[in-house]
Amino acid sequence: MEQCTASGSTGTVSGTASGSTGTVSGTASVSTGTVSGTASGSTGTVSGTASVSTGTVSGTASGITSRGSVGLHPVDAEVSRLFAPYINNPVRSRRQFRRVHTNTHSTYTHTFCCLGLKETTTVPTRVTKEHLQRVGLGEKRLSFRGNQGSSQEFMEFIFISFPKLRDAGGFELMRISGTTRSRHLVVVPCPNEGYTVRYLKDPSTMINHATVYIRPLQRNLSLDHELNEGQVDDQTGPLMPCLNCGEEFPFSQIRQHSKDCSSELQGERENENERESQSAAVPRIILTSAAASSQPPVVDLVMEENLETGSVEAISSGISLSRSTVRADAWITEPDPAKAVQLFTQSTLEAHKDTDNLNFTLSLRDSLVERNRAIITFYKRPKVQWSNPLQCKLTGDAAIGEGVNRYVLSTVMENLQNGFLLEEETGVKTLLFEGEQDHLVPSTSRVLLESDFFVIAGRIIGHTFLNDGPRLAGLSPAIVHVLFGGEHETAPISVSDCVDQDVRDVIRLLEGTQELSEDQKSMVLSVSLPWDLPGVTSENRWWLREKILLYAVLGRTTKQVKQIKRGLKDTGVLELFSSRPDTVPILFPRATETEITSQMILDKIIWPRGDDVDEDILTLEDQCRVLGFLRKFIETGSSEVLKSLLSFWTGWDVLPPSLDVEIVDCDLPQSSTCFLTLKISKNTANYEDFHRDLMASISSAYSGFGQI
């Protein structure tokens, strides 16, 4: 062991110890003092004390160099040693972690979805989004880099991202209203200076991270796939030869071409024999109509030959002989709602035309209760493809053809509209929809809800729609609004939508301005309390009225509406009306729109002409007399009588494109519903007898066709 002591203005102590144990210690009591020592062996300790402004002790033990502040614990000394480069060289540390600031533009990244139609008010479905993306629209993740306060830069940025918007006459931004599960879109108000990124980031717009929808302002966008000049679509696949015509088409187009080519080839083969038998002139062929019976019916057709193409076209009352294949997504881009509905139903039925028939049998020998239960049983079946070809049969009646289908679907919709008779003892019908005309709402019966009756209602509505049948008329606009994704708060509710008379009385009380008595307040409380609403005060009077009305109409029918939606989804029509809100009035028309007037029927009738009359069978005077009786019957009939006449004439109360009349030798008027032909007797001498006979025939329509 060695000890050293140094004193003075400057002092240095050093020592060396060798052996199994080595200790070096030193003391410096000067302004600057340094103590160093070295110990070699199994154990080495270096210690030192400096009572000066600066003191450093260093040492090496067992071959390991250690350095630390004087008087520190060995662990602290080791930590100091490890971080010495950062402590002793602070300039280097700051330089190493100095942040680099660059002068760049701020970036705004967000998801935008460009819509194609200017009337769109709901979030597009998955199929619609895929179609929009194929034509350069749809969802895109965009990054804006520029002046966030400039509306011109933002507009140009949107036009560059979606070039088709330049022809739309402007655009407006939309966001989802309400919860994230909502499909209803509302317009984001446009400030005076126009849309800017800074405005979109403002919390008052309530956009946050939600998708921003861009809707054309004045003109619908073209939804056709367009390629720029010189651009080649590189996703068409290799060329494939057509097995029918031998021509080559891209892989992405060969499937559709094969369908079109097969249909055209089949149509040409079927028309080839007809063209050979046709003369150069345009003939008019009137074939005799047959009643709906077991014999093969013959339809009244007017055949015209197109001399330019040599093809034969058939013009018939509501019968289309076109074999052209409809594109599955053509309804998306069709601007006319009625035409879009027609394209949708045609494409849906075309896709399932080769599948198994959907057989529906009603027995005319059963009672009315048993028939109604058979209808419910048929539409309650799970996992049914409702777009398959419908084949209806009436047990106990030999009638066949489309007329039977129309009769059955008309019966089904009539029961849905006016109620099902399920108990013969009481004779009371079970109503699924209650209320005033044009304000019908689903029944709040728990039994109907738990029995999935409203799923049945949705399937009936969708199935009859696919088969061009009658519609459910008069449904409340508020129910329709919520059914296709609208929010409760934005639904067009009126007092007429409320079925409960007690609730109506309370709403009328709250609408007034006079102070309510204690009895009136108790009356309000008896309605509001079970629905977890407070009593009425002078401050919450109007608010309470709105809440009571909202719950009475929509709150109590939420589950029923969900079941109807399920039924529509099962039939495959929900996609159409969710994507095209402008087609909803076609599915749920107003009751006034379904009323039948005499002029509507007269405009559809194709009256027999004088040159078509065989004088040996019917004189011209008899023809004019009988047709005059029919015209008078139609002109003087009420709306209900005309609906019954139309149902007897065609099978349901839906107006077809045309109606035919035939004068025959019979006792009572007859009809051929398959071919939309009314047959009246030539033997009627006066209007009273004609009216009596026709009403007798109409009143028997509910029992079938009478073909025993």
The gross shape turns out to be globular
Give the full name of the CATH homologous superfamily of the largest domain.
Hect, E3 ligase catalytic domains
Q: In this structure, how is the largest beta sheet organized?
A: 5 strands, mixed
**How much strand?**
15-25%
Low-confidence stretches at least 5 residues in length (pLDDT < 50)? 1-69, 100-104, 228-234, 273-324
Per the CATH scheme, the topology name of the largest domain is Hect, E3 ligase catalytic domain fold
Distance between the termini: 133 Å
Category by helix and strand content = alpha/beta
Structure characterization notes:
The chain is α/β, with parallel strands linked by helices and 708 residues long. It folds into six domains: 2-96, no CATH class; 107-216, Ubiquitin-like (UB roll), CATH 3.10.20; 248-315, no CATH class; 358-492 and 557-592, Hect, E3 ligase catalytic domain fold; 495-553, no CATH class; 595-703, Hect, E3 ligase catalytic fold, CATH 3.30.2410. Strands 10-9-13-11-12 form a five-stranded mixed sheet. Strands 1, 3, 5 and 6 form a four-stranded parallel sheet that branches. A hairpin with a 4-residue loop joins strand 26 and strand 27 (677-681). Helix 21 (598-604) packs antiparallel against helix 22. It is globular and about 130 Å long. Mean pLDDT is 74; it is low at 1-69, 100-104, 228-234 and 273-324.
Q: Concise description?
A:
The protein has 24 helices and 27 strands. It is α/β, with parallel strands linked by helices.
